[in-house]
Amino acid sequence: MNFNRDKMIAGIADSGVQWDILIIGGGATGAGVALDATSRGYKTLLIEQNDFGKGTSSRSTKLIHGGVRYLQQGNFSLVMEALKERGILYKNAPHLVSNLKFVVPRYDWWEGTFYGVGLKLYDMMAGKYGFGDSKLLSVEETVSLIPTIETEGLRGGIIYYDGQFDDSRLLINILQTAVEHGAFVINYFRMNDYIKSKDMIAGITAEDLETGDVYEIKAKVVINATGIFSDEIRKKENPDTPGIIEPSRGTHIVLDKSFLPGNSAIMVPNTDDGRVLFAIPWHGKVIVGTTDVPVDKPELEPKASEEEIEFLLKHIARYLENDPDYTDIKSVFCGLRPLVKSGDTENTAAISREHTVNISKNGLITIAGGKWTTFRKMAEDTIDHAIELGGLEPRKCITETLKIHGYTLKESELPGFDVYGSDAEAVQITCNANNLYDILHPALPIHKGEVIWAVKHEMARTVEDFLARRRRALFLDAQSSIEAAPVVAKLMAKELNKNKKWVEEQISEFETVAKNYTV
């Protein structure tokens, strides 16, 4: 089945159809649940009111990791689960998940023993899923890996290994895999209300936001996988239900590659507020993050505070010879973590990232909490509950060994197309066939033909869908992406059969969003 929105809409037009599993939310959690459900053979539908991954799932620190910070907190069960899931994902999606070297610089004599022992424990807990053994580094070895490291007072470093990925690219590939197994997934499709039978949820009414058409969708089980908006969906069922989500904002800044040349990352184990800080090479730039700031309510486009940006600049400057400032920032992006409330904990940095499956008295399943690394296990737990609640025929989870769309062990020989995995050659053919091999912008190594591919094969519907999530231009260089928007809008308009007014609206809407990513 093609990853095509029109065909997906046609598949739900029959109001007499009853789905086994209906998922609200098209981020990492919802996509994982859809893949688990459909690969077990259940009739599965996923809807998302914005674009897939518009919220938190495209705004991570780009790490598939066990979580060194959780080790510091003594949450060994979460670390072990995450390390196992890291290994599974590395095997199932090697085109997007890679092994990355992390260096912990040492400036005090005691840090070698203290952090060295902790990272050895991290290695041991990974077991057969390990990415490599940690070890102490000399000053010379540390500088060799991080040439721009602050050398004054440097005593050496510690190296360890963890996973890196492209979050929204992986999300699209997971959804494509689900569709290949028979799932229906639709973006820009909003849940309006519940359908009930004998006080139990039996489906929803939903609206196609592109046409205004409203559908009645019946389902044996409805799953709320909306992340930071979980309480909003829960309160549609019962306005008096207590909230379970404690949102926390994580901010990242993006710098030029010159600040961290090479292929190794820096991990700062203890900032002034007790968080772990990373500087990570990613798509030819450097990501520095993250912060942890409690917020009052969820937002679709959170904006960084000046304090957060200054915090990141100040802390990374301690470890780099050349101190970055505001003028060096290429982009700023924020994500809201959907943390599950835990008693009287006031500091969101201390709240566990473990997930929770909540079932209401009317039969709504909510999967909340967790993190990108453990999305597969979260989905498995959720569908295990859904089988029991919906009276579905029990079937075992198969995602532990299920290859994700794009899977390939062969490194792409096509420069710039590596993120497409096994689709790389087909994307290049699309560029050549349409005489669209030119790049969008001198600062963005993205070919014009990739826009056509994203519309035809990855359900991109807006300029933002392409520049923010199908390709990561907005996250890597906000100003250049604004300058590229008119070209993208015209290419998309031709493919989607849109008029000049649509083009103008798209450019304006993208510029409005992109301003949140500039400083």
From the structure above, extract its key features:
16 helices; 24% strand; alpha+beta; Helicase, Ruva Protein, domain 3; 519 residues; 8-stranded mixed β-sheet; FAD/NAD(P)-binding domain; 10-stranded mixed β-sheet
CATH secondary-structure class of the domain at 5-56 and 168-244 and 351-401: Alpha Beta
**Mean pLDDT across residues:** 93
CATH topology of the domain at 5-56 and 168-244 and 351-401: FAD/NAD(P)-binding domain
Largest sheet: 10 strands, mixed
**Per DSSP, what share of the residues sits in E-state strands of 2 or more residues?**
15-25%
Q: Which architecture of the domain at 5-56 and 168-244 and 351-401 per CATH? A: 3-Layer(bba) Sandwich
Q: In percent, how helical is the residue content? A: 25-40%
Fourth CATH level, the homologous superfamily of the domain at 5-56 and 168-244 and 351-401: FAD/NAD(P)-binding domain
Radius of gyration: 23 Å
The strand count comes to: 20
**Structural class computed from helices and strand pairing:** alpha+beta
Structure description:
This protein has helices at 5-11, 28-39, 68-72, 76-92, 111-126, 139-145, 167-180, 230-237, 306-317, 375-390, 424-433, 448-457, 463-470, 473-476, 478-496, 500-514, and strands at 18-24, 44-47, 63-64, 98-106, 135-137, 156-164, 184-186, 189-197, 200-208, 214-224, 245-256, 264-268, 277-282, 285-289, 293-294, 331-340, 355-359, 364-369, 439-441, 444-447. It is α+β, with helices and mostly antiparallel strands and 519 residues long. α2 (28-39) packs parallel to α7, α11 packs across α12 (448-457) and α15 (478-496) runs antiparallel to α16 (500-514). The protein is globular and about 70 Å long. β19 (439-441) and β20 (444-447) form a beta hairpin. Among the domains are: 5-56 and 168-244 and 351-401, FAD/NAD(P)-binding domain, CATH 3.50.50; 418-517, Helicase, Ruva Protein, domain 3 (Orthogonal Bundle). The strands form 3 sheets. Strands 3, 4, 5, 6, 11, 12, 13, 14, 15 and 16 form a 10-stranded mixed sheet that branches. Strands 1, 2, 7, 8, 9, 10, 17 and 18 form an 8-stranded mixed sheet that branches. Strands 19-20 form a two-stranded antiparallel sheet. It has 16 helices and 20 strands.
